[in-house]
Amino acid sequence: MLSDPVRRRLYRHVAAAPEEVGRDAAAEAAGISRSLAAFHLDKLVEAGLLAVSFRRLSGRTGPGAGRPAKLYRRAEGEHAVSVPPRSYGDAGRLLAEVVENAGLDRELQAAARSAGAAQPAARAGDVVAALRARGYEPFRDGETLRLRNCPFHALATEFPALICGMNLALIEGLTPEPWSPAMDPCPGGCCVSLSKKKSD
Predict the structure, then answer these.
(1) Is 86 in contact with 141 (CB distance < 8 Å)?
(2) What pLDDT score does 59 carry?
(3) Which of 55, 89, 149, 181 has its CA 20 to 30 A from that of 70?
(4) 74-84: b or e for each residue (b if 16 or more CB lie within 10 Å)?
(5) What's the rounded Cα separation, in Å, for the pair 163 and 166?
(6) Are 192 and 174 in contact (CB under 8 A)?
(7) How many CB atoms lie within 10 A of CB 38?
């Protein structure tokens, strides 16, 4: 589905957008016509990768307000394709269970922090690029940097304390001063947000 470069550009644009995206905006972002964008967007909806809603963008209601616009957003849920099938999820759950039962939270967090610091974009000081490369889908919410996606969602649901602690440590490694990561869940997204430390 995402092997098509146009479809891939459209999906990435919609998935990274802080709000729902209309056909005109998607077409402009992908550099294609509105009709072609509509075709590919609807194919992504059929595949379960995007979800749809309808809303009047003018804010007007009643007669003469016009038809509601079709808007797209990233669909909830996870999608992974591997041929032949791989069982990384099963391995992750087993490893998380062993780490949790052995009380190795601190060791896991130290390893995660080191892995984050080793990210090339993190070493260059580009926080947004480092987070995006890890799949967090960062977006600005005023002065706060929030994360629309949790790359560890399935494991965090089963082992919240262990995985969210690891996640916070990983982001601490990814983000140099003056950014300060903290537990601050985003509805439907990641449990961590980032704000800049205020200078004294």
Answers:
(1) no
(2) 60
(3) 149
(4) bbeeeeeeeee
(5) 5
(6) no
(7) 17
pLDDT for 76-92, tens place per residue?
766 555 546 566 788 89
Q: How many distinct helices (H) and strands (E) make up the chain? A: 9, 7
- Residue by residue, pLDDT tens for the chain (200 residues) are 677 888 988 988 898 888 899 999 999 999 999 999 999 999 999 988 899 998 876 665 555 556 788 999 988 766 555 546 566 788 899 999 999 999 999 999 999 999 988 887 776 678 888 898 888 888 888 889 999 888 898 899 999 999 999 999 999 998 888 889 999 988 878 999 999 877 65
Burial annotation 86-111 (CB, 10 A radius, 16+ → b, else e): eeeeeebeeebeebbeeeeeeebbee
**Residues whose CB falls within 8 Å of the CB of residue 182, separated by 6 or more in sequence, listed in order:** 168, 192, 193, 194, 195
Task: Give all strands (DSSP E) within the chain, no chain letters.
Answer: 21-22, 50-55, 69-74, 138-141, 144-147, 179-183, 192-196
124: Cβ contacts below 8 Å, ≥ 6 apart: none
pTM above 0.90, yes or no: no
Q: Report the C-alpha gap between 176 and 117 in whole angstroms.
A: 9
> 73: which 2 tokens?
């957003």
Length, in residues, of the chain: 200
